[in-house]
Amino acid sequence: MQKLIQGLHKFQSEICISHQDLFRSLAKGQSPEALLITCSDSRINPSLITQTQPGDLFILRNAGNIVPPYGAGSGGEAATIEFAVAHLGVKHIIVCGHTHCGAMRGLLEPSGLEGLPAVKSWLQHAELTRRLVLENYREVEGSARLTVTVEENVLAQIENLRTHPTVRARLARGELSLYAWVYKIESGQVFQYEHESGQYAQICETAPPSALPERSPLRRVF
Ligand code: ZN
Known about the structure:
Elements: H1 2-18, H2 20-26, E1 34-39, H3 46-50, E2 57-62, H4 77-87, E3 92-98, H5 102-108, H6 117-122, H7 127-136, H8 142-161, H9 165-172, E4 177-183, E5 190-194, E6 199-202
Parallel strand pairs: 1-2, 1-3, 3-4
Antiparallel strand pairs: 4-5, 5-6
Helix pairs in contact: 4-9, 7-8
């Protein structure tokens, strides 16, 4: 806890002072460009990996970067998405999974979830992911199986995202773009799903983020 208190002190005495204008303007309101949906995992720092400032990203986090289909969840996910899209008018929604995801490991190995009934129940929203991996990646094992589960889950959650009326309506008007990302913890690289190739490819300055087509982002299984 001491580390957190020292951090608070440093933030208030150094960062707040050097960024005074930014924080004063943020006190008047927010206008984030994107909604980022990612895992609660402590190893992901959205602002750090995207080098963004307070006010740039509206962030939704939970175990497994899961988006319950509209009407299926009793949590705050639907409210957060609705607020970001309909009220704040974000232009982009990114679902960002990550390598070594404990939630996705739990999805693959439910026996490890004994004693975690809430997690087990929550992961039911990723049943599409589990079924896709079970039926289409029988030959993939070990860490590669976990990685492919992470990748498929991001796409499955994008499918769920499309069931939300505010998202659907803005997509139809061409006012919203969706992106599927996977963050690789060990290298800091971010990969995006490219619909044309059916593969994830690294995002770099020469290959900027490309939005998914309006319909059917499901991965081509080779
Ligand atoms: Zn995770």
